[in-house]
Amino acid sequence: MSKKLLAIGIPTYKRPSLAIKAIKNLIDLDVYDQIIVSSNSYEKQLLNFINSLKYKKLTFYQQQINVGVAKNYKKIIQLCECKYLHIVSDEDLINKKKSKIFYRFLESQIDMDLFIVSIKSYGNNFLYKDSTNKKSSNLDNVMGDAGHFGSSVINVSTWDSSSYALLDKYCERDGSIRVSEASCLISYSKNGTIHYYNDFIVEMGKVSNTGEIRGYFAYGIENVLDQFTNLLIHVLSLKLKNKVTILFYIFYYYAHHALHNSSRRFNESPTLKIINYKTLDIKVKIFLYVLLLFYYLYFIYYKFLGLINKFKK
Questions:
Q1: Domains (ranges, CATH) in the chain?
Q2: What's the rounded Cα separation, in Å, for the pair 52 and 89?
């Protein structure tokens, strides 16, 4: 094999202690062929630690300015020298025994565009992202399956210049924090092959109060609509064997979860936001109105269920 097998990537921002802990964890494992860290902030503590290391498998990149979540994630993909790449949060740790088993599994496995892996919740044995019982040969619910850093392993060896160009376009548009899903879709578009791995590798750490995916920037309605339209444009630009199903699950996620969460959290209504949403793309505008329709259908459905339960009591 001309390429090394498996790399792991850690995008980090203003969390030097967590990044150092994660790097120490990975060096102790001695599983990965390459460890890639890209920092979106200047942290003297982290730089001093990196400079003190004599670990040849470590690739460190210091962003000169805060380029945002997506472009920092993209940089890790660009720096990857291995066939497969697993990007995880700097909050989380990798299980030593299970990562070694997964590496041996990859060695014996036929080529895949994408692997979906489970993630163990913090402080208990509950699987936050559970892929153990999925037998599908298609990537359908990209939001549910690949919507957390660490839940996917992509085949970077199949990427060409057009793949990176597609990711560039995604990262340049507003609402690009769903870069994990966008990257998975690019990999999946190559041959349409996916494997749901039957165990967890990542163990979630305690949620930090510091981070880039926080507050209104990530969860406000205007930003959620940007995320939806960006991902929609991205999906439409790709050749995907089950594109309709993928689009359905994206609509479901934003209509059923994201918009309702934004409405409750920030006391906003999506109606005027969608009506006044600035886009010259007629197709995108139509999809936004369809999204709004689904939002209200779910709203009415749960109101109706609430009334039924009230009468039952």
A1: 4-203 (3.90.550.10), 215-312 (no CATH)
A2: 23
Q: For residue 215, with 0-12 CB atoms within 10 Å meaning exposed, 13-18 middle and 19 or more buried, which class applies?
A: exposed
The string of pLDDT tens digits covering residues 260-289 is 999 999 999 999 999 999 998 999 999 999
Structure tokens at 194: 């996916």
DSSP one-letter code for 111? P
The position carrying tokens 């979106």 is: 40
CB contact set of 125 (below 8 Å; sequence gap of 6+): none
How many residues are there in the chain? 313
- Judge if pTM exceeds 0.70: yes
DSSP-derived secondary structure letter, 257 = I
- Residue ranges in the chain assigned as alpha helix (H): 16-29, 44-52, 69-79, 96-108, 142-146, 161-172, 179-191, 215-219, 221-236, 243-252, 259-266, 270-275, 282-312
Helix 221-236 and helix 259-266, axial crossing angle in degrees, nearest 10:
160
- Count CA atoms closer than 13 A to 300's CA, side-chain side: 6
Residue linked to tokens 């920037």: 217
Provide the terminal-to-terminal Cα distance of the chain, rounded to the nearest Å: 65
Please write the tens of the pLDDT for every residue from 130-184.
787 787 789 999 999 999 999 999 999 999 999 999 999 999 999 999 999 999 9
Phi and psi (nearest 5°) for 37?
Answer: -125, 130
For the chain, state the CA radius of gyration: 20
What does DSSP say about strands 127-129 and 194-203: parallel, antiparallel, or unpaired? unpaired
d(CA 156, CA 305): 46
Task: Name the nearest CA neighbour of 6 among 142, 120, 104.
Answer: 104
